[in-house]
Design goal:
The protein is mostly helical and about 350 residues long. About 65% of the residues lie in helices and about 0% in strands. It contains 12 helices and no strands. α1 runs antiparallel to α7 and α7 runs antiparallel to α8. It is globular.
Length: about 350
């Protein structure tokens, strides 16, 4: 749930040039809330050992779900998920259609969004400790992982015109495709984040704790739409790079020796794409690239990973190919839309 309109970060009304930066206070308060609630999840987790689970059956199996789900466990997880989901979509729609402008402070709808997300964080905690199960009981683990992957790919697409995709160079993607990706991405991001949030019970493994902390940050970002802090380049970067720590941590916990693929895969996207949107000096970029190359050379010279250099390219190749596919899908949707309602592009051009 990032910036939800076609407005750019600089599109701020002249009368709002110097308001109090309540968006910054909300950001730091939200980060403090995320840290505190992650600690609460950790502290309360021993109570969850009483819930019986089935034996682990491999990589495609999600272990943290009830051995015998109940009607109450399913209704609580799905009911609260749907309430959270539609509340978020409703707030996005309201902001997009009634607010429409960026501010350096907070809109009333931001305050409501912060409160709604905090409420559902608390409700998910209670639901875990009473009924335990999340959405994982009924849907595949790959649906949760895939939703977040598409979200990260969507960010790469949206940021193509600002920072480029390959070492600062833009892909030749149509302006209208980028505009639609920016305008409507909030609805998809809200689904990806909230669906993943309710997929997992609030367990306290290292992967769960880091994952919930990351999700709290994403929910915070989704509550600060149409504020200047929402489009702050460093804060947006945090939303992207945190997946490096989370993905690597989960791979280490799984113990399959695949962690270098996640560490250097996401670090590769950083040096190829993400660092070029931060306004860094050229020598800093070269230094970061050198650290990446040196670290990869050190790890992949070890006997355990020799002959596996393909891992360095796996995640970047998938993500960059997915950017092209996503752009084509949006373009195809626009093509169909234009032929169903051919008068709309002309109206949009006239009002631009």
């Amino acid at each position: 749930m990032t910036a939800m309109t076609s407005l750019k970060p600089g599109d701020i009304a002249p009368s709002q040039r110097r308001p109090a930066r309540w968006d910054r206070w909300a950001l730091w308060g939200g980060i403090a809330f995320a840290l505190a609630f992650t600690f609460i999840i950790w502290a309360a987790a021993p109570r969850l050992e009483a819930f019986p689970k089935l034996p682990d059956e491999g990589p495609a199996w999600y272990y943290w779900k009830l051995a015998e789900p109940t009607v109450a466990s399913r209704l609580s997880a799905w009911g609260l998920y749907l309430a959270h989901q539609f509340a978020a979509w409703g707030l996005i729609w309201y902001a997009q259609n009634r607010v429409k402008r960026y501010t350096a402070g907070l809109h009333p709808v931001n305050v409501i969004a912060l409160g709604v997300n905090a409420l559902f964080v608390l409700l998910h905690f209670v639901q875990t400790h009473v009924w335990y199960d999340g959405l994982a009981q009924d849907v595949s683990i790959f649906s949760s992982q895939g939703s977040v992957i598409v979200m990260l790919v969507w960010i790469l697409l949206m940021e193509n015109n600002r920072r480029g995709l390959i070492f600062g160079k833009r892909l030749p993607i149509g302006k209208r495709i980028i505009q639609h990706a920016r305008k409507y991405h909030g609805y998809y991001f809200a689904w990806a984040i909230i669906y993943t949030f309710w997929y997992h019970p609030m367990e306290a493994t290292n992967g769960h704790l880091l994952g919930f902390f990351y999700t709290f940050l994403l929910l915070l970002q989704g509550s600060l739409f149409l504020t200047r802090i929402h489009v702050n380049k460093w804060w947006m970067f945090v939303q992207e790079i945190t997946v490096l720590a989370h993905g690597t941590m989960v791979a280490i916990v799984q113990g399959n020796n695949m962690w270098p693929m996640f560490l250097f895969g996401f670090a590769g996207i950083f040096v190829i794409t993400q660092m070029h949107g931060l306004g860094l000096k050229a020598w800093v970029k070269w230094l970061l690239l050198g650290v990446y190359v040196g670290g990869a050379a050190l790890v992949y010279s070890q006997p355990l990973w020799q002959g596996k250099l393909w891992q360095l390219a796996a995640i970047p190749a998938i993500d960059y190919l997915a950017v092209v596919v996503l752009a084509l899908l949006i373009g195809a949707g626009l093509w169909v839309y234009d032929r169903v309602r051919p008068h709309r592009p002309a109206e949009n051009a006239a009002s631009a």
